[in-house]
Amino acid sequence: MMKRNHRKQAGSRLAELFQAYLLNHAHGLFSSLGRLTRTPFTSAMTILVLAIAISLASSFYIVVANIQQLTGNLESSNQMSLFLHDNITDAAGQKLAEQIQQNGSVMEVKFISKKQALEEFKANSGFSDALNALERNPLPSVIQVVPKNALESNEDIEKLMSDFKQFPQVDFVQVDMQWVARLQTIMLIASRGVMLVSLLLGFAVTFITGNTIRLELQNRQDEVFISKLVGATHAFIQRPFLYTGFWLGFISGFLGWLIMTIMLLILETPVEKLSTLYNSSFDLLFLSFSEFILLLMISSVLAVLGSWAVLHYQLRQLKPQ
Asked: For helices 289-317 and 40-73, what crossing angle results, to 10°?
């Protein structure tokens, strides 16, 4: 019976300690937010600078995402054209197209007969009268193939071309590999450029937050000295400053997302109008909910890391007189 009471008391004590721990952290979290509101101008200027840096990084990211969406829409431009021998009938050509469709590396296949090719050429070339004077159709049947992941690997495209050339019905295969290579290189440069700029802006967020916390620590030196004299640990002293860094990063991340979203909304109508002028349907991509949450997490973590690095160094230098 005594053992059971002892365990009950120990469990109750542990629950009280955990509750006190949570209350202590909650107090630090909201008191640090209150401190930011006591210096509205300084806090607003710091948050605005951080938000601009975050909005620039996220804007570069979303621009590349929209370009990748555009290249995805243009992927049909990378199609391979398989020109068949003149003696291949439409039925044989259609059967070959169905066979090619079974290839796992192929996304779409379209068979164009000689007659269809001639009609399309007449409609687009403006030489319909001259073509009508021809005794026979000089155009071959064509199978248009859109490969999967056409913008990702030149080796895969070349291997696919080599496989298609093995078909006895195929005269030759045509694809603009140079255009594909250029587009791949442009996307690679854009992606790496965004990564480098984002890293630089991430360091900027870390350093700006760290400097803000350093100034805050200097303004509260007397409070820190008293805390050290009564035996407070560095972890206890750091806690409100780390929460201040968290709020700076969190609010800046949200404001940065808001700035970027407003810019995209301003650009959305002109972009859609330009898209319609080219007989296309292109919709601007915005950050998804998961990307928005990730942005808030990254900005908050960077700010907390900058705060912790400054506090870890500065608290060791501050010693009560």
From this structure: 140
CA distance 48 to 255: 8
C-alpha–C-alpha distance, residues 141 and 171, integer Å = 10
Say whether pLDDT at 128 is over 70: no
Please give the residue that has the higher pLDDT: either 215 or 222: 215
Long-range contacts of 285-291 (CB under 8 A, 24+ apart): 285/62, 285/65, 285/66, 285/69, 286/62, 286/261, 287/58, 287/62, 287/257, 287/260, 287/261
For residue 239, give the amino acid letter.
R
11 Cβ contact partners less than 8 Å away, ≥ 6 residues apart: none
CB-CB contact of 49 with 209 (8 Å)? no
Q: Which residues pair with 108 in a beta bridge?
A: 146
The 3-state secondary structure of 216-258 reads HHHHCHHHHHHHHHCCCCHHHHHHHHHHHHHHHHHHHHHHHHH
Mean pLDDT of 109-120: 79
Q: Assign residue 153 a region: left if phi > 0, alpha if psi is -120 to 50, beta otherwise?
A: beta
Q: Map residue 298 onto helix, strand or coil.
A: helix
- 3-state DSSP helix/strand/coil % of the chain, to nearest 5: 75, 5, 15
Strand partners, 83: 142, 172
Q: What is the pLDDT of residues 261-286, one digit of tens each?
A: 999 999 988 888 887 776 667 788 89
The closest of 73, 209, 91 to 141, measured between CA atoms, is: 91
Give the three-state DSSP class for 49: helix
- Residue 35 φ/ψ, nearest 5 degrees: -65, -35
Exposed / middle / buried, residue 288 (Cβ in 10 Å: 0-12, 13-18, 19+): exposed
Angle between helices 177-219 and 154-165 (to 10 degrees): 160
Q: How confident is the model at residue 76 (pLDDT cuts 50, 70, 90)?
A: very low
